[in-house]
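To: structure subgroup
Subject: Chain for Friday's discussion

All,

I'm putting the inputs and outputs inline so they're searchable in the archive.
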Amino acid sequence: MNGGKAERPMPVKAKSLVWTRRIGCLVGLTALAGISACSRAHTELYVSAEDGGEVLVIDADRGEVTAHIPVGKRPRGMRLSRDGKLLYVALSGSPRGGPGVDESKLPPPDRAADGIGVVDLASKKLLRTLPSGQDPEAFDLSLDQKSLFVSNEETAEISVVDLTSGKVRAKVAVGREPEGVSVRPDGKLVYVTSEGDNAVAAVDTGSLLFLGQIPVGARPRAIAFSADGGTGFVTCENGGVVTVFDTAKNVVTGSVTLAARPEGAQRPRPMGAVLAPDGRTLYVSTGRAGSVATIDVGSRRVTREFENVGKRPWGIAVSSDGKSVFTANGPSNDVSVIDAATGQVAKRIPAPGSPWGVVVAPKH
């Protein structure tokens, strides 16, 4: 009843029209939800296949390789441009050695194959190869994206590549067997690990002056920074430690020892390192120990170890939401997807060609 008057019944045709509209709206909303779900971007990985001479594009959610990008000989270290449009890849014509290999019996190097490949990620094609100095393995971009700093292990120096001219504009001696390269977050210094000197070299990115070396553990590999850039973490393969240093004073402030193993078992050999998006946890791959160690950045203590993640995990990355950790496992030709909350391997994705490095594609 309304105001004492009986409500007039709705005509059948009108009822039919209203229900048609309602159903149409529901169908439309359902369709839009479906489109949204279907168009939701998957987590995409770029993996350098050292023996395959290519970069693999992997859909981590579906667990499959979706594209192969030929780039050249022995692709290893990779970096994304800051706009996420280009992928830079270190390529080397030096024959692959490794522990226990008699290098005198290896074939001669192909110096013409040395360089930094530039991959366009939209077309998934190699655009060009930049000069890099001899046997490049790792490198980093300057903050202004005008230069690359490339480690040349065989010549004990870094090459500075001008990205505008495409030429090497300078070379700086940094110590024996340079390996990992990382630019400090403020862009003013670049640090280079020296396997032969058990040290990290500091170089001014403006003047390109060598500022000195910071002593670290045995056979340093990679360098990662805290979220504020004030602390550096250096993985030291043979030392079984992560050396911690102050990036303002360039002095060592401590070290984190990875867990010991029973006699006869492979001990942890810190290799790659990546900081979680929230800045609280550092993930470290342990090489032949086949695990990932988690280090609390605040307390500088190992909090957990994810066991049996793959064979000799080296390259390591973390998803943008921090929920997944990815490792490149060369000897087993696969990439592991690890649940960061449980430490369990959610899936192992076949990745032929001895995967070396792994990079997470940016979200657009």
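Points worth raising on Friday:
The domain at 76-215 is CATH 2.130.10.10 (Methylamine Dehydrogenase; Chain H).
The two ends are 56 Å apart (CA to CA).

D.
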